[in-house]
Amino acid sequence: MEENKRIPVHVSIIMDGNGRWARERGLERVAGHFEGVESVRAVTEASVEAGVRYLSLFAFSEENWGRPQAEVEALMHLMFDTMASELETFLRNGIRFLVLGNRSRFSGPLLERIEKMEAATASNDRLTLVLFFSYSGKWDILSAAKRLAREYARHPEDIEGVTAEDFDSLLVTAGIPDPDLIIRTSGEKRLSNYLLWQGAYSEFHFTDTLWPDFRRESFFEALDEYSKRDRRYGKVK
Question: What is the pTM for the complete model shown?
Fold first, then answer.
C-alpha cells in the first residue's frame, strides 16, 4: 500500500465466491469455505498492519439457512473449529472478536463458544473483528423498529423526538462506527441485504477476485482506491 494514505476506520467485506472457486476446481462447495478461512486470516493481519480499527465480515446471511443442510452443517463446524484455533492469535495481536446476527438460530455449543471468545477478547483494542453470522439488514432494521415500538408503546407521541442516532443504538451494531468501505468479492455488485442502514454513506469496492483468492495484496489495493475517494456525505465541499 502507498505511504501516507487515508486509512478507513471500519472496513467491511462481503465474502463472495467460495462455491464458484471450488466448482472451478472440481471440488465440493465446502472446500471453498475452508480455503476462504485463509483469506480471513490474511485480511485480518493486513488490517492490523494498516491500522484499520474495525474489520467486519459477512459470513452467513439469514437467507443462507436455506442452503443444503450438509453445507450449512459444514459451515457451522468450520466456524466452531476456527474460533477454537484462533483465540491465542487474537489475544497475542490485541484483536477483539464479536459475532452479530440472529443468535436464536445458533446451536447451544456454538453459542457457548462464541460467548467465551467474546469474553476472552473483550479488553483487546487494537482491532475489532466482527463476524456477521445469521444476519440480514432487513432483520436488523425490523428488530430495531420493534424495540422502538415497545419502548414508546405507552407514550407514542414522544416518538416524534426520536433521531437517527437513537435508532442506531437499537441496531446490533450499536457502538460500532458505520463502515467507511464495503468490499465485495467475486464480481457481484449488490448489497445482498447487508448493512442496509449502516452502509448509507459507505464507499464501495467491487472486485472480480473470488474470496478464497483475496489476500493481503487485494486488500491493500482496495485501501489505496479508498484513499482517493472524495467523501462528501451528500454535501458540497
Answer: 0.93
